[in-house]
Design brief:
The chain is of the alpha+beta class. It has four helices and eight strands; from the N terminus they run H-E-E-E-E-H-E-E-H-H-E-E.
Length: 152
């Protein structure tokens, strides 16, 4: 017997998508390497805003640093324990707003523990500005577009 997906209330798509994000500890970040090959790795976002802007802390020495610099279009894939999915496509930009960096820094003790201060040259904070968010219920085999509101 083929599994039947739970119906999706399309008016609740933003809430459904945020629930998947909240229940996924390590989403996968997809980038493109220097030879044009896809690269995927788990990441631990340090902040998720209501408009689906995602912040990811990084070390300058990581491979994804050069990949994002050359090809800033990325995708984050979230898979919740119940197998609902969210995919966020967007542009990764190095965050330069000192207020935002300080807010994130102060709310993430591990950053302080490992990097010492926000002016550590090894530290990079990426902001992924979403241009597309999609939600899929387990077994549904079709994505629903999550409407993006205006960013502040």
């Amino acid at each position: 017997m083929k599994p039947k997906p739970e119906p999706v209330d399309t008016s609740a798509l933003p809430e459904l998508a945020h629930a998947v994000i909240q229940n996924t500890k390590f989403p996968m970040l997809a980038t493109v390497d220097g030879e044009g090959h896809p690269r995927v790795r788990p990441v631990s976002p340090v902040r998720v805003d209501q408009d689906f802007t995602i912040f990811v802390a990084n070390l300058a020495s990581y491979h994804k640093t050069a990949e994002i610099k050359a090809h800033p279009e990325v995708e984050l894939a979230y898979l919740a324990p119940d197998h609902d999915q969210v995919r966020i496509s967007g542009t990764a930009i190095v965050e330069s707003d000192a207020r935002v960096i300080e807010e994130i820094w102060n709310s993430n003790p591990l950053l302080k523990q490992y990097l010492g201060s926000t002016d550590n040259p090894k530290f990079i904070l990426y902001r992924v500005d979403p241009n597309r968010v999609r939600f899929m219920r387990e077994w549904a085999l079709e994505y629903h577009e999550v409407e993006l509101g205006l960013r502040s």
